[in-house]
Amino acid sequence: MAAQVNDSPTRDRRAQRRQATYDEMMGIARGALQEGRPLSLRAIAADMGMTAPALYRYVDSHAALQEALVNSIYADVIAEMENQVARWPEERASERFFSSIAAFREWALSKPEEFRLVFGQPQSHWDPDAEEESVPRAIQFLLHFARCLKALLDQGKISAPAEQSLPAAAPMMIRSHLGPWLDTQAVPDLPADVWWSALRDWVMLCGVIRMEVDGLVPSEVVADAAIFQEALRCCALRAGADDAATRVGLSEAFGRS
């Protein structure tokens, strides 16, 4: 009887090499995006000393390259936002929230081409026919925002809006945006009014950031984050937060971000 050969180490090395090649490809693609160079398989392959067909094992088209690049960017930005949350103790929910949102804004301002790639084209929020079980990237930032609001709500630092103040279409819009994940453990268990606050304020804050990125507000107020901090403060006050504590939290968060 022939001895069995354990080929696991060989498979592991191949997987590691494949991952290393993929990571290098993503790094070069992000560098090209930030520098305004062509974002094409041919150009990336040339930078890697490879041929474009060799990269087809990783991405089979320009559209697939963009999709992979956006996924890579999403993962890194969400990870940095979570890192900012972890810098503060749990009882400092305001600073956790403000710091993570400040990190998102800093990414947008420091890497505007990445921001425009991620947010500059329409994206479907969820596909009812998709087989993928993970939460789609299009709602992951909103989920982070909502988790922060839940922590603030649990600590009594904000209050839920009165249900009668919600637009009549709010439940439908929340359901449309979150899709089937609204009824799973993948998203926080929040009342509809808090979900509405999260969606409304996230859209408003992204609008401010987009105007900053595109140079539509004075550079002086972008540099010191004056308008963005005021927008955050308005969101907090509308949710019932204490103004003095909010100002302190903003100062702490933006001073450390």
Automatic annotation (TrEMBL):
InterPro entries the UniProt entry points to: Homeodomain-like_sf, MT1864/Rv1816-like_C, Tet_transcr_reg_TetR-rel_C_sf
Pfam families xref list: TetR_C_33 (PF13305)
Keywords: Transcription, Transcription regulation
Gene3D superfamilies xref list: Tetracycline Repressor, domain 2
Highest taxon listed in the record's lineage: Bacteria
Residue intervals of the HTH-type transcriptional regulator MT1864/Rv1816-like C-terminal domain: 102-232
Protein name (record): Putative TetR family transcriptional regulator
Organism: Austwickia chelonae NBRC 105200
